[in-house]
Amino acid sequence: xxxxxxxxxxxxxxxxxxxxxxxxxxxxxxxxxxxxxxxxxxxxxxxxxxxxxxxxxxxxxxxxxxxxxxxxxxxxxxxxxxxxxxxxxxxxxxxxxxxxxxxxxxxxxxxxxxxxxxxxxxxxxxxxxxxxxxxxxxxxxxxxxxxxxxxxxxxxxxxxxxxxxxxxxxxxxxxxxxxxxxxxxxxxxxxxxxxxxxxxxxxxxxxxxxxxxxxxxxxxxxxxxxxxxxxxxxxxxxxxxxxxxxxxxxxxxxxxxxxxxxxxxxxxxxxxxxxxxxxxxxxxxxxxxxxxxxxxxxxxxxxxxxxxxxxxxxxxxxxxxxxxxxxxxxxxxxxxxxxxxxxxxxxxxxxxxxxxxxxxxxxxxxxxxxxxxxxxxxxxxxxxxxxxxxxxxxxxxxxxxxxxxxxxxxxxxxxxxxxxxxxxxxxxxxxxxxxxxxxxxxxxxxxxxxxxxxxxxxxxxxxxxxxxxxxxxxxxxxxxxxxxxxxxxxxxxxxxxxxxxxxxxxxxxxxxxxxxxxxxxxxxxxxxxxxxxxxx
Length: 536
Hints:
Elements: E1 10-17, E2 22-28, E3 32-39, E4 62-64, E5 71-72, E6 84-85, E7 90-96, E8 105-111, H1 127-132, E9 138-142, H2 147-151, H3 155-159, H4 165-180, E10 186-196, H5 198-212, E11 220-224, H6 238-248, H7 255-264, H8 267-272, H9 305-310, E12 319-324, H10 338-348, H11 354-363, H12 377-402, E13 410-416, H13 420-424, H14 435-439, H15 456-472, E14 499-504, E15 509-513, H16 516-528, H17 531-534
Parallel strand pairs: 2-4, 5-6, 8-9, 8-10, 10-11, 11-12, 12-13, 13-14
Antiparallel strand pairs: 1-2, 2-3, 3-7, 7-9, 14-15
Helix pairs in contact: 10-11, 10-12, 12-16
GO molecular function: carboxylic ester hydrolase activity
Protein name: Carboxylic ester hydrolase
Enzyme class: hydrolase
């Protein structure tokens, strides 16, 4: 029978003075303090909807920080919805109980994912990661606005608000960490940002933010299953604004009145409009997976991401990137025919032409069948997984490796840890299956039982590599005793290097070179399709 790790008990309380509020958190039996649900920004309500976040108000009181906060409203959720709210800009911090303002511990800042449409990795417990680091780090996670609330885009929003509010929330949180993390024992000058899925995509956005301007908010980055959906310009998203305005009764008025109208509407009415719809010209099912995304606004995001990286407009810091072997399996349409695959891809990347989808299918033929799925599902899964997650990692790493300004270390991995339940479900090694190994299976939701039995050894390895990177910007310096040295992506600047760590079932690890056929497919997604894949 699988055994759960005993959870630490509460042995007392602890306080931290942040100048605007004093928070009382929990002291845990494993030597970690937990501060849960602290405000890092004012509630984004009323006139603050679709605006950059502002600092929280001074209270002069002691506020409780002893339970996880509500998360931000995601698509498809009704209102009221248990555990979700428009008032959602909260942060959680775990720190060693004996840390002081002089401790200057490295900071692990986790940006959750959810496709920019939900907070799906919210409130993961960081206490074990702090403990397993030898009480040598501070861990932070937080919520940010998503869906309609975080990424409604239009020139009308720009005229009376701020575009990419969800990314601005993230920047606000980084500034909050810079200002306040020393009060928890953290080093404001040693912050490593780690994102999962859309959070990993966000890491890429912060590398190129404001043309690669370095605001000294972080010194390293980790992109776990980097998510690169179609990246629209503002002009391509006016239809989304029009649809929302029409649905809630704010159409047929001049732009300033429209924004005032939207801000006056009840949250339940707006939340009813927070759902996916077909992209223009793509009317047959399935719906796009990710309807709301960051936009190229000319300021925070000044161009398509690949263009920015190729021009050297990014912050040059050590990076660690990783993907799972079967990234597309939980997203792909259950395609029965080759035509189903083409429609699925075109509905998610609407600039693709019929010639493009023909070229894609020429590179992604029918694959062996998988349990519980139709004949062409494996092809849809592989194509979408490589287009959206795996190849963006490879292509960005290659761009950075060959950049004239490249001086920082680059590391990559492929997570190939199989689980009998996933295999039986036809999912292979799915998106973010590594999360339970990074944070510990008792600290995230719905971890597979194999992490407490035959895959338990991989947890020790992965957690140690991750915490080593957070502490030293090198996954090797504090890696688990006896574990394999993690070689960087490329030494000597040769594309042939393209090395990545492979984590395997049961805790085995090895280094591999990216196979030639995978390299060619990744080159096709970037060079063969170009901007048509990035835009919508």
